[in-house]
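Thread title: Can someone regenerate the structure for this chain?

I was given the following input by a collaborator and told the matching structure tokens would be attached. They weren't. Posting the sequence so someone can regenerate them.
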Amino acid sequence: MRNIWSYITLQASHRKQVLFLMIFVSLVYLFNFGVNDIWTPNESFYAESVREMFESNNFLDIFYNYEPRYNKPPLTYWSMALSAGVFGLNEFSLRLPILLMGLGSIWLTYLIGKILYGEKAGLYAMIMMAFSLQLLAVKQYASPEMPLTFFFTLTMYWFLKGYQNERFNYILLSYLALGLTVLTKGYPYIIVIGGIIGSYILWDNWGHWKQLLKKVGFLRLHIGIPLVTLIGLSWIIYMYIQDGQEFWTVYKRETFDRAFTRESNGLKPFFYWEVMTWTIIPYSITFFFALIYWLVNWRRMKEVAFQMSWFLVMLVIFTIAKGKIPTYFIQAHPALILLIVPLVMELKVKGFGRFLWNFSFGISAPILIAFAFYYLNGTNSSIALYLLPITAIGIFLIWLINPKTPDCNIMMPFGVMALFSLTLSSYFPEMEKFRPYDEIGEVINTNPDIGKDTPIYIENTLIHNIPFYAKREAIRDFNADMLGDISGAKLILIKSENLSDYPNFEKLWSGLIYDFPSESQFFKFVMACIAAENGDYSKFA
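Best answer:
Regenerated them for you:
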């Protein structure tokens, strides 16, 4: 028991402590990880494209719903396909590489913290990264955000290691990682990461111009740029040679145009400031305290030049960009956390400032605990599950009555957030009664009267994961007026109130489906499920 307590209080030997934390985080991440059907819409694009890769035995040309999908580069698809090839085509295998790259991102954040400030700092960085709110959300579904975060952070790690040790072999590895970053999300990330590294080198060598030129020369850009281009743009070049302007029009729209030329509702200069208020909960308020501290103590800011460059360049670029989505800022998580770490190690503030510092660690816990109780009550969960938020209360009270040491401040939110994550995940299996997509697929695919080439028509919308489970093309926005335009067997998914518009049809299945285009707004979907558990089905059709 004493040994376990030493791990919980960060008193174990460093190597054992790191191993314990990584195992614990991995177990929390894996809890109910593969129980849910493919989420709509984003995960559906990747899952169905991988299914069609195996169906066609073509892993270079990407198709979704039997139409070319040029929107994103292929590395996320390929990692999912590799996993599916080993473990079978199912929800768990498709998400497994996403989870592993999430764990890899946590590990890389630890390594960067260790390089910058030592072993204990790396440990703190790992802990804060592990259960940040948005990272917990995106590890649950297959999409490019987690692979992008992994390769982005890998690029930054190898660069920092090479730069500080003046070892070009590490810089070379950073070029390889940057190429894979581009192969995950697109060429704009050459600008983003190049901007971060360039700003940091300029800042680090400001006023020492000969040294600056020497550092730039050390990067050997004449080797790095062609290498990044060869890896990162290889698929783009292949697709352009094959499909020409048709490919380029779509790809350009999804990358350059989305960032700089698409219509928007304005600059929204505070969009990502708002995102930062919650994206790394339970440490978001602590980040703002740290940021204000570094701005006030600007003469010391060179101590955090690396992560400050990372944060500021991303903030400026993505604020200027017209397309704004909260997940775009996940790649800044390590930077936000690493701005906190040196203050955790040694913050020389007393009085009210010290109170605010400690308060920033504690403020999220009561809110998370209250929501956990509300969630369990709304979902009519087992009484036993209430032990999770009750334990969280105990952790919070222990923190409240004890001295606010760095270890205590870091571990209390970590423990509460882990229990909060387990509380939410405990309902995932029950949630599937409102997500009957695999059930629909089974009804279709086990019916001998339905041919494999018979498409499924979906009334007035497209449910994006239906092609994956039905294993056929889904034709969107169908209505009864179009019946005369199609011949042969007709397989149609309609709302029950419109059943009278389709006389002489046999009913194969009926049930509830979420009546909103996206489950990616997860908390909105959770609230709809809670309402449905209590008899309000207004969000379902």
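The longest helix spans residues 91-117.
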